[in-house]
Amino acid sequence: MVHPQEFDPRQVMIRPDFELQFKRDAYLQDVQLHHHDFYEVYFLLSGDVTYTIESRLYRVMPGEMLLINPRELHQVCIRSETSVYERYTLWVDPQLLRKLSTGRTDLCRCFDPGRPNYGNLLKLKPEEQRLIHSLFEMLWQEYDSAGYGSDLLRESILTQLLVAVNRMAEQDSGRFEEPSRSSRVVAAAVEYVNQHYGEPLSLDLLAGQCFVSKYHLSHEFNRQVGTSVHRYILKKRLLNARLLMAEGESPSRVYSRCGFGDYAGFYRAFRTEYGVTPRDYARSVRPSTEAVLPEA
Q: Angle CA(263)–CA(257)–CA(213) in degrees, nearest 5?
C-alpha cells in the first residue's frame, strides 16, 4: 500500500541529490509563482489542475506529466472542490543528473528548452502511464528504506524513470500539449525579459516593445502569468542570480549582470525573497565562493 505524505509547502530541497513526494490533498490554496534550483518531474494521478509555466498555461489531466527546468518560473492552480488532488513530484539536483548521465545518454535532455520539439506538458499513452506510475511506486517504496541495497535500488529505479521520461519526450512532437491559453503580447514580453533581464527594464519599455499600451500589457500579464510585470522582472533577475552563484560567480559580480543598479538593492531583494543573504547562499552552493562586498 502506497501512503501519501502530509502536505508540505516548502519549495527547497532538504536532501542533496533528489526528493520524491507523493501527496493526496482534498483542499489546497493556490501556490505562488516560484522557481527551483533543480529539475522537476510532475506526474498527476487525479485532480483538476491548471499550471502556468512562464507565459504558458496548461490544463493538466490525470496521467499526464510536466517537465520543468530551473530557469522556468511556474505556478499551480488547483480546483480541489471537484476532485482529490493526487500526484507524484520528483525533484532532481542538476549535479546528480550529470553524474547519472553518460557521454551517450544525457538525462538532462528532456528539460532542455533548446532541443527540438521541447514542451512542458507530456501526454502519455495508456501503457506509458502504467510504466511511469509503476516506476514512481517502486521508487516511493524504496525512498526512505534502510533495507539492504536500498541505496542502489533507489539510484537504479531513478535512472530507469529518467531514461523512460527522456525516451517519451524524444518521440514525436504531438506528444506535447500546446498551452490552452497564450497571449502573443504576454509571450513576447516574457521572452524580452528573459533575454534582457540584465538591462534596464520597465512596464513602459516592454509595452513599447510589444506595441501595446502599458495598461493593456499590465492587465494581460497579471491575468496570464499570475503576477505583475515588475514582480516577474524581479523574480527572473533573482532566479538568474542564484543560477550564476551556483556556477561559481561571486555575489559582487552577479548583481550588475542581473540588472540590479547597486549591491544594496540586490542584497535586500535577495534576502527578502529567499530568507538568506547572497553571500550565505553562494557559500552554501559553492563553499569556495567568496563575496567581495560586505553584507552589511
A: 100
> Angle 192-54-261 (CA atoms, 0-180°, nearest 5)?
50
* pTM score of the predicted model: 0.81
Q: Give the tens place of pLDDT for each residue, 197-234.
A: 999 999 999 999 999 999 999 999 988 888 899 999 99
Task: Give the model confidence (pLDDT) of 107-141 as tens digits.
Answer: 999 999 888 778 899 999 999 999 999 999 999 99
